[in-house]
Write a structure and sequence with these properties.
By secondary structure, the chain is mainly alpha-helical. The chain contains 17 helices and three strands. Strands 1-2-3 form a three-stranded antiparallel sheet. Helix 2 crosses helix 17, helix 9 crosses helix 10 and helix 14 runs parallel beside helix 15. The chain is elongated and about 80 Å long. The two termini are 55 Å apart.
Amino acid sequence: MTSPIDVEGSGGTSVVIDGATQPPVALEAKELQGRSPGQLMWIRFKRDRTGVISAGVVAFFFLIAAAAPLIAKLYGKNPYTVYADERPELFDSAGVPVQPNGGISSEFWFGLEPGNGYDVFTKLLYGIRTSLMISLAVTVATVLTGILLGVTAGYLGGKADYFISRLIDFLLAFPAQLFFIASMPVVVSLFVSPTDETPVYVRVVALIMVQWFLGWMSLGRILRGTTLALREREFIEAARVSGAPPWRIIRREILPNVVTPILVQGTYMLPNFVTAEAGLSFLGVGIVEPTPDWGQMFSKASTELVMQNDITYMFFPGISMIIFIVAFNLLGDSVRDAFDPKTAR
């Protein structure tokens, strides 16, 4: 059995391990291990209570979006049932729920929608699901495009940098919201004849394409500048001298050093795409009924029938979007601070 023994002149107690006597300093050196930048970032992030809470809120929204069909099944309803036709006794002659507060009850947790009488709870669940899935797809597409063009322009330089930079300047001159509104019908008409009913997947693809087209430039410009600075560093020169091809240098040397701006910009871009998608649906050029959508619920809430008879209808989609957007923006600040602790909020 091993036991600590005192060694004269050592100034402390040594420990016998596998028959060898080691001083305490050696033991501490073994226990202390270097941490990677990712580990340090994670440690700093966990200490930020605001960031952790915001991450939990964001994760909750994505969880309910992914589990919306299961939740609706357990709840026993779906967002497509027209209760104004199936159970007309729940509505008055104007199509407004008879019970107060929009018909909120133990049966209908968030009430019923005036007019068609959709269940508000399941419509909100599926609306969040639709908006988040579209916005997530747009974010992934814009991040990949920004990485491809931004890093290419910064590393290759010359004519490639000139043409990509001029393309970024040209696209940044477009008024994004007006372009979204004007181009959505054009993009939809490329897939479907104006005389035919537009399938839901066509509107989804059009929303992704339109927002992606004008969404990647800010990240591309940031990555171009970062790559321009990195390509002059000694470790990049050493990789070139060793004969490494450009793709290997970009993959092994450049990309690991631009993770910070990619993650930070990604956390800011997604909530912006959520509000943009909701705005397009609100204006009637995005997702339309009967497909549930966050922005479509705002559009319904702004109608005269709802505003005059059921003001509580706006509460649930409104407060949920405010919570999501604020949480995601706070998460973006926390991620930025975790990567760069010298940055003051």
